[in-house]
Amino acid sequence: SSSDLNKVLTFTQEHYAKPDSQMFGAAKGKNIIVIHLESFQQFLINYRLDGKEVTPFLNSLYNDKSTYSFANFFNQVGQGKTSDAENMLETSIYGLPQGSLFSALGTDNTFQGAPAILNQKEGYSSAVFHGNKGSFWNRNSVYKNLGYQYFFDASYFNTTSNNLTEYGLKDKLLFHDSVKYLERLQQPFYAKFITVSNHFPYTIDQKNTDFKPANTGDSSVDNYFVTAHYLDQSVKEFFDYLKKSGLYDNSMIVLYGDHYGISNSRNLKLASLLGKSSSTWTDFDNTQLQRVPFMIHIPGQKNGGIQQQYGGEIDVLPTLLHLVGIDTSSYIQFGTDLFSKQHDQVVAFRNENFITPNYTVVDGNIYDNKTGLQITHPSTTLENKVKNESTKVNTELSLSDSLNNKNLLRFYVPNGFTPVNPQNYDYKNDFG
Ligand code: GP9
Ligand code: MN
Predict the structure, then answer these.
(1) Which residue in 60, 138, 177, 251 has its CB near the most CB atoms, within 10 A?
(2) pLDDT, tens digit (0-9, with 9 covering 90-100), for 388-402
(3) Whose CA is nearest to atom 1 of ligand 1?
(4) Is 82 in the pocket of ligand 1 (CB under 6 A)?
């Protein structure tokens, strides 16, 4: 109803964060290439296994002045995993408390997300490249509702069994075989590449890797480093293609990890590789490991570097729209621009836990980020602060749920926005 919608609108308008004037439009007119790093956690960045860098190329990007690299960026997915990450990045609205929003509501709900906004405001074309079946996570339907013009799914690629791992086309082949399509997209374009090779159970044939696994005894932990290394090489090759094709200089390349690769129970095996002991491992440590990479690489930019502000997947859309000079004040978005002075650094997890720059709250327990120790007797000031933040987190998540479950966006048309007509799109393999 309109009162349900108004509650959401009031909340998101009150939390709107205005863009930083230096960053607004800093990448105006550039192609946007989003690289989804499957199951990739932040701890891999700059990590050495037996003295060997696991992801040398991503490390070089992370440490490059042309990249805004976020050291405290968190995944906020629920059970919808990849699809929840995509949903947050495309719409700045949370996934569902249970299940996947793409699967449960993606066929019928109204979306006001990145491809449509970029197209309507700045004339972007749009495409997704993914080497798995288009029906996985209901993407075929959701992408039409988002206004994606092209979806290059497995049917566009040579998927003979040698070319595949468990979740689809090997990443090197995905990038290599996509360039011919990418080059023909009308510029500026918004293009997303969803990788799959670094997906549980982390298997890649010997022929495709020279990297030695760890030896914790848990084969998925051990091989995680091997497939992460393969993903790193794949991204490097893709950058080479972009440079060769001339697209590189005119593009902003965004990389993010969607969610953890190593589960909380397996973290006990991982602990020793991180210089920690499994006997003192806590919920605090599990939460710290929910960091994933978020990097915005803008060739030619020299003022990048490592950013310390806390944020998460919900914050990506307003951040990117502001970078290409699009005003976001009329959209319903729960996240805030990471570069804004008003950016909200309370990062909500889907289960109502949250993290701030100073402390981490898990099941009502407060941990000091500096020491990792639980604050068993918080001061009244801290207690009140945590109470307020926790109220805000719960309100935000439940408003997002109400918006999604009642499909409230169908009652709201942002100023100057034309609702998406999914019938305009057809992803049959006939790209001419
Ligand atoms: C498959 C892929 C995997 O198409 O995106 O999704 P996940 O299992 O990580 O949610
Ligand atoms: Mn995933």
Answers:
(1) 251
(2) 999 999 999 999 999
(3) 167
(4) yes
pLDDT tens-digit profile of 31-75?
Answer: 999 999 999 999 999 999 999 999 999 999 999 999 999 999 999
For the whole prediction, is pTM greater than 0.95? Answer: yes
Contact indicator for 117, 417 with CB cutoff of 8 Å? yes
Which residues of the chain, if any, have pLDDT below 50?
432
ipTM: 0.99
Q: Where are the beta strands (DSSP E) in 163-225?
A: 164-165, 168-169, 189-194
Q: Whose CA is nearest to atom 7 of ligand 1?
A: 82
Q: Rg of the Cα trace of the chain?
A: 21
Q: Which of these is catalytic: 82, 195, 287, 360?
A: 82
In 105-188, the DSSP E strands lie at 125-130, 150-152, 164-165, 168-169
pLDDT of residue 162: 96
CA 81 to centroid of ligand 2, rounded, Å: 5
Proximal ligand: closest to the CA of 138? 1
Strands 52-53 and 294-297 turn out to be unpaired
The pLDDT assigned to 1 comes to 79
With a 6 Å cutoff on the Cβ, whether 74 touches ligand 1 is no
Amino acid at 125: S
Q: How far is the CA of 122 from the centre of ligand 1 (A)?
A: 30
CA angle 161, 133, 236 (to 5 degrees): 70
**The pLDDT value given to residue 430:** 63
Cβ(129) – ligand 1 distance below 6 Å: no
Q: In the prediction, which pLDDT does 277 show?
A: 96
- How far, in Å, is the centroid of ligand 1 from the Cα of 235? 18
Instruction: Report angle CA 86, 87, 90 to the nearest 5 degrees.
Output: 80
Q: Alpha-carbon distance 17 to 318, whole Å? A: 9
Residues with CB under 5 A from ligand 2 (ion): 81-82, 258
Decide whether any atom of ligand 1 lies within 6 Å of the 77 Cβ.
Answer: no
User: Is 82 an active-site residue?
Assistant: yes
Residue 138 Cβ inside 6 Å of ligand 1? The answer reads no
144 Cα–ligand 1 center, Å: 19
SS3 391: helix
Query: Measured in whole angstroms, how far is the alpha carbon of residue 26 from the centre of its chain?
Result: 21
pLDDT of residue 431: 60
What is the Cα 215 distance to its own chain's centre? 29
